[in-house]
Request: fold
Amino acid sequence: MTNAVEGLNEVKRRIAAAETEAGRPSGAVTLVAVSKTFDADTIRPVIEAGQRVFGENRVQEALSKWPALKEGFPDLVLHLIGPLQSNKAKEAVALFDVIETVDREKIAAELAKEMNRQDRRPRLYVQVNTGSEPQKAGIDPREAVAFVERCRTRHGLTIDGLMCIPPLDENPGPHFALLEKLARQAGLDRLSMGMSGDYELAVAFGATHVRVGSAIFGAR
Reply:
């Protein structure tokens, strides 16, 4: 058993325990194994151990490894969890099954155009900058609900959920609570929140997806 498979099993065990502790049903939370910077040979044992949902930060990096992996394992689900540039929308729509980082009008418009052109409909999440950090991607929380509505009405997009990355130096709990509140206001029931250091807390706050990388694959 590789170290990554051992990490996977431990994270899955801890997610299950967090679900029980929070009084949530078993399997309520989907693990997104974040494989950015790791090559196909490192990822493959984790796939063979049963993991099917993965996250990547960069379109170009994902293109270098995931088409071949998807050929071998057609039931894989690939999430884009890093910022999306408008000139990468075409490749993102073609490769990813979920795009978690819709955060501005230009991206919404480009995705709508490409989804119609390719007749492919990846699921979409709006990224919310819950800490209002100027250096970080994501829509301002005060604008998030209205932006979701514009995505629906102006661009014809179906938004499935919200995503956030809390500030590194703050307690993530209030940020998770804010995201859950915004999702309710927008009529959404999927929340992508929580990473290697705080995914159990995110489960307690209602996360439906947690994005865990280093706790599975090790330090980058």
DSSP finds ten helices and eight strands in the chain.
